[in-house]
Specification:
This protein is α+β, with helices and mostly antiparallel strands. It has two domains: 88 residues, NE0471 N-terminal domain-like; 255 residues, 4-Layer Sandwich (Double-stranded beta-helix). The protein has nine helices and 20 strands. The protein has a six-stranded mixed sheet. It has a four-stranded antiparallel sheet with strand order 10-19-12-17. A hairpin with a 4-residue loop joins β2 and β3. The longest helix has 18 residues.
Amino acid sequence: MPTITDLTSHPSHLTVTWDDGTASDYPWIWLRDHSHDEQTMHPVTLQRQLHTASIDAGIKASSVALADDDVQVVWADDSPSSVLPVDFLAKYREPSAATARLAVQPVLWDAEMLEPTPSTPYDEIMGSDEGLRDWLEKVARYSFALAVGTPTTAEATEGLVRRVAYVRESIFGGFWEFTADLSKADTAYTNIELLAHNDGTYSHDAPGLQLLHCLYFDGTGGDSTMSDGFRVAEELKESAPEHYDTLSRVVIPGQYVGDGSHLMAARPVLRHDHTGRLIQVSFNNGDRAPFMLPRDEMIAFYDAVRAFDRLANDRRLQWRHVLAPGEAMLFDNWRALHGRAAYTGKRTMCGAYLNHEDFESKLRMLGAG
């Protein structure tokens, strides 16, 4: 951790000099707002108890001192003295736009890079936080990972899901078990081929993650496919930046019609945060609802979506594997595009959706955020 070598007060701010030579300017009002004393920050909930709008805009310090691992500030007015841990200040020593991104760096992969397939033994996931962290970090890094050796029961699989977070309810229910019987108005409930796609393009907040586990399979075909949507987007940006731009701008409606519902939502295929970082791929050709743009824009959209779709289904960028009973697959539905080859015979699947924020929360609680 960086250490402090000097504290210099100015009329509007405090300059902190670090042992590597970095000089950080902290406005006085920021320091007051982020004090760690119990009157400012609740010791249990960590919520701010200070009414920020009541802070004098011209607040200044009468003295500042370094005491062990804290910076202590005595204010010139009657405000309570503030305490700010050095490690807290170190996190914000270089100004930057606020983000909620995880510390785990994604690996943008192609088929050759996924040898061996990212996986963690079920017993390790269920038996220790280290095993759970290993599994979830692999999902964050590669967009999916298997839990191998999962007992082939719905009960055990649901327990695996709840090891991560609570189950998200959707049009399909909570934890579900299904086969090719069209009990829902979705082609996942058939045995036909499903090309690369994301689920929930008809939801304003698409499911963040999905777990799928094959409980039983007696038949042929049925390869599960995974494509790294971020890698697909990167290749599209390099080869056809105009298509990348189109898919980042054009808002596309998705819909689910059936089972007493007509769900609709709309967003671009490529969604970026305020820093310009790609954070979500939202592509489902089957669930795309009709829409009409001016002629030239409509043609540009079809050119772009054709290029993206072809890359998403390119074998070079696609992991393919027949999921065997005992291989539970957790994947990031905001990044991974999943699919399935057509199959014959009898296959029973189970699984559930999770919220992305809950997946991220678990990683942070495990020390990986």
